[in-house]
Structure formats: C-alpha cells, structure tokens
C-alpha cells in the first residue's frame, strides 16, 4: 500500500459570480453521454444520419423514471467524464450494459476503464462513484465498497462479467481481457489496478466564494487536505492496489442533480 493516497479536486468554477452548474451539465452530456452509455462499436458507428437517435437511445438507457434523486447514474457519468478528460482513460465496458431492464440499479464497480502509458503498459481503473451532498456519508459508503469489492471472490466474479461485456471491436479488447484473465494470479493483477474513488459533496469553500481567486484556492486546498486525512485514516485494503481519491466539491448537489435530470429528459424527447 502506498505511503500516501493521491488526491485531486475537480470543480466547475464560476462565471459572472455564479457556480457553473449549468455549464458543467451541458459539457458532460454533450461530450460524454455516448461513450458512457454505448458500446465502443455503437459509438464508433454514430454518423450525422444516426446521431439524434443515438443520443436519444443513450439517454433512455441511463434511466427513465422520475424517482431520480437517489440514483447513482449521474455520479457514474461524472466519474466517466473525469477519467476521460483528466486521466486519458478509455472505457473498457459500458456499465449500462450490465442492465437487463430499464431503471435497474446495477451493483459492482461504477466504472471500468483502461489507461495506457508511453511504454505500452496498461493500468485497469476500477472506479467507485458516490454522488452525495455530504462528504462523510460519501466517504463511509465508498470505504465499505472498497473493502467488499477488492475481496478475492468478488474480483474474480466481476472480472468474469466484465470480460463477457468487452466489445471485441475495441482495439484494446485482447490486451484488456488478457490482463484480467482467470489464469493470472490476483496478486499479479493487483499491481496493474488503480481504484479511483470519486466523491461529490456540498462544499463550504465553493459556497462561500464566487470567483476562482487565491482565497478560494486556499479554502478549497484546506478542505481537500482535511478530507484526504480523514479518508486515509479509515482506509483498509485487502489487496495492494493503487487508490486515487477524486473529490468534486459542489455548491449544491440537489441543484446539480435536478439540472442533470432535466437535461436527460430533454435528450430523451420527454
């Protein structure tokens, strides 16, 4: 286990004195919905003739219910976007494809991505997303998932399900399947696993400021440092994997989820 956990903080920032919630929602859905909800081959085949229907199908596949406040798909979409934009990750599978019916909540890792380096080595990023308004609750839930999801039996079953869902047209399909093959020891596989822990929360630092200036940066840095210390003090891992904490401070989780729901409904044509 590393001596310390890497931590990043991602924030939408401000515009004209207001937190950029609407801008964040537009950007996330415009650039990331298709690769979040569709398989590699489906997304690759989207054309000008099929784009509108593809977006509608992707939006419908996320969920189609008005009971959305406590659902986790938006957190998973935000995690996916963050991994692609800031860590050069590629989705190995669409978690939406684990679903057998609309609105079903799927257990297991919230994201499965691959990150390659300049030497051709690959890392398997198995993410957990907690789309919460309160940081302590988000952290408690994430820590419980880390312990259960890194148990040997769970990993073996999850790798079996993931392997079945990998799109063979994806250029990295063979390498990815080999990396998590049953024939390999979990001790060896764990060396290539990164576990991004993505936590949203209503932030005092974000709420008390209206521009990205030094006092905001200082307040957010202190807030993130305190959160990291609390996380590290409670973390227990049954396998030696790299854990990366990704904190997403919000002005209002409730407002953000309402905006995301409205955007999803609009894309569904509802």
UniProtKB/TrEMBL annotation:
Pfam families: HamA. Residues 6-264 form the Anti-bacteriophage protein A/HamA C-terminal domain. It comes from the Bacteria. This is DUF1837 domain-containing protein.
């Amino acid at each position: 286990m590393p001596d310390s956990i890497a931590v990043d903080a991602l924030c939408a920032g401000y515009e004209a004195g207001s937190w950029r919630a609407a801008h964040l929602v537009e950007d996330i859905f415009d650039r990331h919905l298709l690769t979040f909800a569709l398989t590699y081959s489906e997304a690759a085949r989207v054309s000008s003739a099929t784009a509108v229907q593809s977006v509608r199908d992707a939006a419908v596949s996320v969920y189609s219910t008005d009971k959305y406040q406590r659902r986790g798909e938006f957190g998973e979409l935000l995690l996916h976007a963050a991994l692609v934009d800031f860590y050069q990750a590629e989705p190995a599978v669409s978690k939406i494809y684990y679903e057998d019916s609309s609105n079903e909540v799927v257990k297991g890792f919230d994201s499965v991505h691959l990150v390659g380096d300049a030497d051709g080595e690959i890392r398997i990023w198995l993410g957990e997303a907690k789309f919460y308004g309160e940081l302590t609750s988000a952290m408690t839930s994430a820590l419980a998932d880390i312990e259960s999801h890194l148990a040997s039996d769970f990993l073996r079953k999850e790798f079996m399900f993931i392997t079945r869902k990998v799109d063979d047209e994806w250029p990295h399909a063979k390498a990815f399947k080999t990396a998590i093959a049953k024939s390999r020891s979990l001790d060896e596989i764990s060396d290539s696993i990164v576990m991004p822990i993505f936590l949203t929360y209503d932030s005092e630092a974000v709420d008390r400021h209206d521009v990205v200036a030094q006092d905001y940066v200082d307040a957010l840095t202190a807030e993130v440092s305190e959160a990291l210390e609390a996380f590290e003090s409670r973390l227990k891992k049954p396998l030696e994997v790299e854990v990366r904490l990704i904190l997403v401070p919000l002005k209002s989780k409730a407002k953000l989820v309402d905006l995301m729901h409205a955007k999803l409904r609009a894309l569904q044509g509802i």
